[in-house]
Specification:
The structure is a homodimer.
Chain A lengths: L1 H28 L6 H8 L3 H7 L3 H25 L4 H18 L1 H8 L14 H14 L9 H20 L8 H12 L3
Helix pairs in contact in A: 1-2, 1-4, 2-3, 4-5, 4-6, 4-7, 5-6, 5-8, 5-9, 7-8, 8-9
Chain A binds a DNA duplex (30 and 30 nucleotides) through helix 3.
Protein name (chains A, B): TetR/AcrR family transcriptional regulator
Keywords (chains A, B): DNA-binding, Transcription, Transcription regulation
Pfam family, one (chains A, B): TetR_N
Chain lengths: ~190, ~190
DNA sequence: TCACTTGCCTAGCAACGCTAGGATAGATTC
DNA sequence: GAATCTATCCTAGCGTTGCTAGGCAAGTGA
């Protein structure tokens, strides 16, 4: 049975290779450059191999998104755990979120801009996505304010961060006041 | 010379037809369905005719975006002009913005999600885009708060609205608390 | 009437996502 | 050790995309 196990291991390894390569390619040249042909060439297999691991390009994007969600959650928790006041925690959360979006634009797109075939905000939502939201909720719940439901409050704060992240990166917002905008968000939205 | 004038008129008319048709098709079936072939068929001309008006598909998206920017500005100004208090004006602005995004998803995408080849937040930014931002600024400047630059404040508020609009429509936010989220944004961000 | 310009269409290119079907290499059986 | 069977992977190709070259025909001016 060890032959079968070895093959399964190799197969899993190749799947990780596909996701990693897709991510690298997307970060280097954008998702438009991630074609099935180019991706296949980079992993040194033929195109149809991709389809033995994923239903299609969409599912590959989804796999990158899930990887990103896990990292985002880790990043946010790491940033907030080092802060001592509620105000500092919220600011750290905002900066960690925007940093992630800035330094991993392709992954961020896979998560929140592109169609990766994932379901959001539902029962069958994949665990990494739920957990990323939970990471935000943990810090934001304590600054929602009296009588304000932490869920919708987190959603609103998150939406604001998402707007800043996407509009800034798309060149729709001038970069000079970036820090000022974050301060505004933290000081006004959070009840600290 | 009247022959030449007639031809110019007809040409301008056909250009409007292209933009209008692209917009209709995009609203009906999404931008993915707006292929040059389908678009050409709908306007009852051949594909290359499109390229005698626009450099490519991107520029057609850009044209739809500019049309949308004008309408968005009109909508926001109409909504705010009917409100009597600062609080009401900001709330009306937020609702008008989100209504526009909800009822014209394809146009909204052309404006803020897709690449229409337009430049934003710069000197050479097309007038309709500048004016749409100005429409937001007019109402939001009066609630920025003491010592807060209205520009970055408007940018921040806008980003929050944009986040709500896109995440809601993409199914990333549950629809049930939509109104609650708007209230939060208005009550907290604006100094009313 | 003839030349010329203008405007449009047919046909085709390279690249896309995805798939059918055949070849080959390895495991299993006798 | 030879034969068969299975699983794995590749070649080739389909239909579609954005975009363009080249030719035809209708209308303009001499």
């Amino acid at each position: 049975m060890s032959v079968k196990e070895r093959k399964e291991r190799e197969r899993a390894e190749r799947e990780r290779l596909i996701v990693r390569t897709a991510r690298e390619l997307a970060e280097q040249q954008g998702w438009d450059a991630v074609t099935t042909r180019r991706l296949a060439e980079r992993i040194e297999y033929s195109q149809p191999v991709l389809y033995s691991h994923f239903r299609g390009k969409r599912e590959i994007i989804g796999a990158v998104a899930l990887e990103g969600a896990t990292e985002l959650a880790v990043g946010v928790r790491a940033a907030t755990s080092g802060a001592n006041s509620r105000r500092e925690r919220v600011a750290a959360l905002a900066r960690a979120y925007l940093d992630f979006a800035e330094h991993n634009p392709a992954v961020y797109d896979a998560l929140f801009q592109l169609d990766g075939g994932l379901s959001y905000a539902q029962e069958d939502t994949p665990e990494p996505l739920k957990d990323a939201f939970a990471a935000l909720l943990e810090t934001l719940a304590e600054v929602a304010g009296d009588g304000v439901d932490p869920g919708p409050f987190t959603e609103t704060f998150w939406a604001a961060l998402h707007g800043l992240a996407t509009l800034t990166r798309a060149g729709r917002l001038p970069p000079e006041y970036a820090e000022h905008r974050v301060e505004l968000l933290v000081d006004r939205l959070a009840m600290v």
